[in-house]
Amino acid sequence: MAVVVQSGHGWVLDACSLIDRGYSRCVRWRGDLKSHVKCRFKRQCFHLLKCHYSVNACAAVDGGNTDMLEKINKPTKKRKRKHNELNQGEIDSRVFHEKIRSVILEGTTSLVDSARSLGYLNGSADTVKESLPLQECSLAALCEMAKELPLVDDEEQEECVQLLLAESGCTSHVDLFSRVTENREDWATVVTLMGEEYVIPPHTAFLLSDFTRIQPLVHYGRKFDLIVMDPPWENKSVKRSRRYSSLPSSQLKRLPIPLLASANCLVVTWVTNRPSHLRFVRDELYPHWGVEVIAEWFWVKVTTSGQFVFPLDSPHKKPYEVLVLGRYRSSADASMSSSETKEIPVEDCRLIVSIPSALHSQKPSLSEVLKLYVGAEANCLELFARSLQPGWTSWGNEVLKFQHASYFTLTPADDPADISKDEVCTDEPTVTPASSAPGESSPPHH
């Protein structure tokens, strides 16, 4: 079950099951040959059994993103600061942490206890011995090379969309860099793109590009009811590791949110634990777009035993990340009342508890959680995406990163009927009112 627990505190998600939702039916194309396959995301990516809060134990938590922990575990030749010598950023971080600490601790304890009562987060008896996929992603470099291609003119907007598959299943002429690509099939499709195999979910649209080639997404002609983004925030760890190219905060204002958002569109931004980034989103970025801040949520990362992946009070790495939620308020919609637009209220300080992926920068899908507030039929867009979701449109310069076939287990199936019913996820969450916080109620259902 993708949503294991839902209560007034938030949700416990099975992140791997959320991914598998889109692959219950899957077809593989090799040239003109078509075959049916069973497709599952590799379980070892979400197999964080235990964390003893040491560098070695935590290295798999966030793709080896433990630079700060390594700092405090290794001798340094630099002059050590005095314990009371904190810079302003560290002071701000401490104040913010103290403000939300009880919310994180009490909510996580309640949600994890509810999940354990259902047999989840009790630790895993199965040992996944396979190593993690180590696919080298070159998509961002390909996007740079694609800048030499001519741009699609404004008058050729109808050519900004293309189908992933022709009637024959051929994908050799797909232009991934300057046109939105759609998989309109009712099943997932394993296809060869740029000489590599990728698994594309059903009813998915995507554009592989950077800022300079985002125009086809605007010309796509869709207005979105939900926009989720995970920007490549600048920080010292990213600069040292060179894991991916970061983006100055000021550049985010160039995103054409007003051209992409429908009336009262829900905008959700993943933010690192740097207070300066959080202030920028709340005080500059959202106001610049005409987005009103309505809530802050927290993604809490736990092991398969329900333990925090890092100490809650660690001064270096926290076991949570922040999401800032807002509503797009266009001037044209100012005269419309909330009852006329059927806006669903969003509660503040909700938690999303899940086992994190060992693959760096892979966040859990928010589709099942957020559909409570935008409706099951909403048009959804993810910006700076590194994977695809069924029914969503996605954009980014690594938009196919985690769709590479190396991240999936593909096994032959004679026919779609061979896929057992128990592999098709049921999305009904378990509601546990007893774990709701005092004075709070569970989010509304559609």
Order of SSEs: EEHEEHHHHEEEEEHEHHEHEEHEHEEE
How many distinct helices?
Answer: 11
How many beta-strand elements? 17
Please state the second-level CATH architecture: 3-Layer(aba) Sandwich
* CATH 4th-level superfamily: Vaccinia Virus protein VP39
Average pLDDT number: 81
Instruction: Return the CATH class.
Output: Alpha Beta
> Between the first and last Cα atoms, what is the distance in angstroms?
18 Å
Round the Cα radius of gyration to an integer and report it: 22 Å
How many discrete domains?
A: 1
Helix amount: 10-25%
Structural class: alpha/beta
Low-confidence stretches: 55-76, 238-242, 419-430, 432-446
CATH topology: Rossmann fold
Account of the protein in words:
It contains 11 helices and 17 strands. With 446 residues, it is an alpha/beta fold. It has helices at 15-20, 55-58, 67-73, 88-117, 139-146, 215-219, 236-241, 257-260, 275-289, 338-341, 367-374, and strands spanning 3-7, 10-13, 26-30, 33-41, 161-163, 180-183, 188-193, 196-200, 204-208, 224-229, 261-271, 291-301, 320-328, 351-354, 380-383, 392-396, 408-413. The protein has a single domain (3-68, 89-435), classed as Vaccinia Virus protein VP39 (Rossmann fold). β7 (188-193) and β8 form a beta hairpin. A 12-stranded mixed sheet has the order 1-2-14-12-13-11-10-15-16-9-6-5. Residues 55-76, 238-242, 419-430 and 432-446 have low confidence and may be disordered. The chain is globular, with a radius of gyration of 22 Å. Helix content is 22%, strand content 23%.
